[in-house]
């Protein structure tokens, strides 16, 4: 398969690689869309990531596609299923996981390799963080699941008041940046809401360019 391999700082090379064989519980997904987020950009510029990957390797972690080979439960993940996978999966057993803080998992498993024709999704990710897509969901939209989840989690952590919560009618302020800017929802029906505050530094729009 063709893949973009990171060799070091700002060094990406296209290569033909042999697809890795599947182990029990894994699935192979043909990439329908693979996105580039700020983390990918930093990995490209720095040439490594302390926890996620060690070059040379295929990178990229926000993707959606179609299962083309499955060593998982065929009743749950048959070939032809359109899916999106999170880029990590917690162990579920460490103290942080038992406290419900899976983002702080001591043994968080990361998934990279989306900049290729296909990717093998590990058993733990299949079991905990693989999701089937509705027939009409575009791959490019589905691949935004992970950054959207970060925004939803942040909004949830704000504990915004509602008609059923004290403080109804108050406002919270947010300083959106990156995916948050596009996904902070308006509060409908009055009551508490989010008021955008301009981000720090130079204002960036759709046509802005990062000078770094």
Global mean pLDDT: 83
Helix content: 10-25%
State the end-to-end distance.
Answer: 33 Å
Looking at the chains present, what oligomeric state does this protein adopt?
Answer: single chain
Q: Regions with pLDDT < 50 over 5+ consecutive residues?
A: 187-192, 206-212
* Secondary-structure element series: EEEHEEEEHEEHEHHEHE
- Name the beta content range: 25-35%
Total of helices: 6
Give the radius of gyration.
20 Å
- Helix-strand makeup class: alpha+beta
Largest sheet: 5 strands, antiparallel
Number of E-type strands: 12
Strand order of the largest sheet: 9-3-5-6-10
Would you write up a description of this structure?
The chain is built from six helices and twelve strands. It is 20% helix and 26% strand. The chain is of the alpha+beta class. The strands form four sheets. It has a five-stranded antiparallel β-sheet. The protein is globular and about 50 Å long.
Sequence-ordered SSE layout with sheet pairings:
Layout: E1 2-8, E2 11-16, E3 27-35, H1 38-46, E4 57-58, E5 62-70, E6 82-85, E7 88-89, H2 95-98, E8 109-110, E9 118-121, H3 123-129, E10 130-132, H4 139-142, H5 145-157, E11 171-174, H6 179-183, E12 193-196
Parallel strand pairs: 11-12
Antiparallel strand pairs: 1-2, 1-4, 3-5, 3-9, 5-6, 6-10, 7-8
């Amino acid at each position: 398969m063709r893949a973009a391999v990171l060799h070091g700082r700002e060094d990406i090379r296209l290569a033909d690689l042999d697809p890795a064989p599947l182990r029990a519980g894994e699935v192979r997904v043909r990439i329908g869309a693979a996105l580039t987020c700020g983390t990918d950009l930093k990995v490209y510029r720095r040439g490594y990531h302390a926890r996620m990957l060690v070059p040379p390797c295929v990178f990229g972690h926000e993707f959606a596609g179609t299962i083309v080979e499955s060593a998982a439960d065929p009743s749950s993940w048959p070939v032809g299923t359109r899916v999106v996978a999170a880029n990590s999966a917690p162990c579920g057993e460490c103290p942080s996981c038992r406290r419900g803080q899976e983002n702080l998992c001591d043994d968080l498993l990361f998934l990279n390799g989306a900049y290729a024709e296909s990717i093998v999704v590990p058993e733990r990710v299949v079991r905990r963080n693989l999701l089937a897509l509705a027939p009409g969901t575009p791959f490019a939209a589905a691949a935004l699941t992970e950054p959207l989840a970060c925004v939803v989690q942040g909004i949830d952590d704000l504990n915004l008041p509602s008609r059923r919560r004290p403080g109804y009618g108050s406002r919270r302020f947010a300083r959106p940046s990156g995916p948050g800017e596009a996904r902070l929802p308006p509060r409908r029906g009055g009551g508490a809401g989010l008021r955008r505050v301009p981000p720090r530094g130079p204002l960036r729009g759709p046509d802005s360019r990062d000078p770094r």
